[in-house]
Amino acid sequence: MRVSLLQIAVNNNETVESRRVRVAALVSAQAGADLVVLPELWTVGAFAADLYDAGAEPVPGGPTAEAMSAAALDAGVWLHAGSVVERGAGQDGPLYNTSLVFSPDGELRHTYRKIHRFGFDRGEAALMAAGHEVVTAPLPQATLGLATCYDLRFPELFRLLVDAGAQLLVIPAGWPARRREHWTLLARARAVESQAYVLACGTAGTHADVELAGHSIVIDPWGVVLAEAGPGEEVLTVDLDPALVGKTRADFPVLRDRVLGMPTPTPAAGPS
Fold first, then answer.
1. Percent helix, strand and coil across the chain, each rounded to 5?
2. Which of 200, 125, 195 is nearest to 161 (CA)?
3. Strands lying side by side in the sheet with 143-146
4. Which of 1, 37, 125, 137 would be 117's cystine partner, CB 3.0–4.6 Å?
5. Are 102 and 110 in contact (CB under 8 A)?
């Protein structure tokens, strides 16, 4: 299974419309990949909270969804198009940080509204509503578990994704450079504890006066880093073996020994 992570640079000197056209062309160039992944909020910028309202789009039917649908169809790939600022129902509907997954025929198959919002009562945490659904996306080769950026700090979400069948954990992000070590550490931890691949696609560049970390990373179920990008815009392409997930879980079956958080077994009925 070939995956390509497109680490997009988001800078103030490029309009959203120009970036959307540029990114669509980059996606279209990935013909031959099975899965292409984009970062979080690459249209307006993850830290540009003052642009969220003006840059919000309906899902489906917004300009980013339309452009990414066409690009996925053009390349013939499954596309995790990162996330957009979604405008919920109504002219003044709530905002969500929403990820979009398209099939190779350009159909929007799955959406995920970010559950954990960053900002500690400011920025995203104050301006966006929280999602509530744990979302997986079955592909022909493997099942994706969907999470976004700050979600990475909450391992209980990833336990739920594993229980729902996830084999590849896909995490688009707009992670700041000043906490890059946390990005790498947490991504490896989620891979090891979940015995799953982690595909963590970050943003490059500087916007809203925040330098982004870049350093998109692909990690195997043993926690081995298969590939890591640098700080700038970059395409990271890696060949994965989804069967390694099942083999790892069978050879080193730690997940079956979970106790806390597991459903309480129902006692067997005694003789009547």
1. 30, 25, 45
2. 195
3. 136-138, 143-146, 168-172, 197-201, 217-219, 225-228
4. 125
5. no
**pTM across the whole model:** 0.94
Report cis status (omega within 30 of 0) of the bond before 60: yes
Distance CA 49, CA 53 (A): 8
Residue-range domains of the chain with CATH: 2-257 (3.60.110.10)
3-state secondary structure 130-151: CCCCCCEEECCCCEEEECCHHH
> pLDDT (tens digit, 9 = 90+) per residue, 182-217?
999 999 999 999 999 999 999 999 989 999 999 999
Query: Tokens for 95?
Result: 């905002």
User: Alpha-carbon distance 17 to 88, whole Å?
Assistant: 21
Give catalytic residue positions: 40, 114, 149
| Buried-exposed string 23-36: b where 16+ CB fall within 10 A, e elsewhere | bbebbbbbeebbbb
Instruction: Give me 224's structure tokens.
Output: 């081995």
